[in-house]
Amino acid sequence: MSCLANCFNGPSSGPDGQYNSADTANPPAPGFGDLDTTDVVAYKKGLDAQDKKEYQAAIVAYKEAVRLNPKNENYFYNLANALQDQGELQEAVKMYLSVIKLCPTHHEAWYNLGYIQEELQLYPSAIVSFKKALDLHPNDKDAVINLGNTYMNSLDYDNSIIEYQKAIKMEPSCVMSHYNLASAYHSKDDIEKAQFYFRKAIELSPKYADAYFNLGICYQDKGSEKDLTEDKSREQYELALEKYQKALELDPEMLEAAEAIEALEKQLKSHDP
């Protein structure tokens, strides 16, 4: 049996799915022009560098701002965000924890902390962080989806289904919620529900190659290679082949679709009536 195409990661609220500090954290008062304090000057240098995607320069500037004023959570937050942009995830975790120590209700810090923890496969910690983010902002669909993804990655399919269903209620037209819900149902071997939600994802996004590919897997799962001489199994395999072909048409570089087509055509040919 082919493997499902990967679940979506949560939707991006900034680079790599994180909340972008330069957009969400404004330079703290006081400070205008020549009256800026030295920590504010360093902070603004960091913002400017981060806006230009010069992350190492931003890190240096934010570290200076933190050194000069270690009680400002914005400085720690933007330093964490720049470290995250730079791929220094362990250091970013430390800085987000510093933000939370200074400001336990910092929603974006909890969210980004969970995002990194999920990426580092620290699933129990990520679950706690996303739940904290949702305690602060219960309608954050991004956090709901990422919490569902974390449950999914930790093989807790029942809870992942609950979270994806919540996300669909928040935004019924969200493609990734339907797609990931379908993947969760498939992981529980509930093929009928998986097919329903893959079809819904396709309805919402008709050029979604991964959804066609995974729908093909569902059809193939409902058939049986040893029973391909029977009409029912053959019909399921032919429907699977059709979906794989559509996936490859939409994404000519989808190697797994090409391989699935080749294998399925051989199986069907070897069992020609």
Describe the structure.
It comes from Octactis speculum. Keywords: Repeat, TPR repeat. The chain is mainly α and 273 residues long. The protein has 14 helices and no strands. It has helices at residues 21-24, 38-51, 55-68, 73-86, 89-102, 107-119, 123-136, 141-153, 157-170, 175-187, 191-204, 209-222, 231-250, 255-270. The protein is elongated and about 85 Å long.
Low-confidence stretches: 1-16, 22-34
The overall strand count is 0
Give the overall silhouette: elongated
Question: What would you give as the CATH superfamily of the largest domain?
Answer: Tetratricopeptide repeat domain
Largest sheet: none
Share in helix: 55-70%
**Architecture per CATH nomenclature, i.e. the level-2 architecture of the largest domain:** Alpha Horseshoe
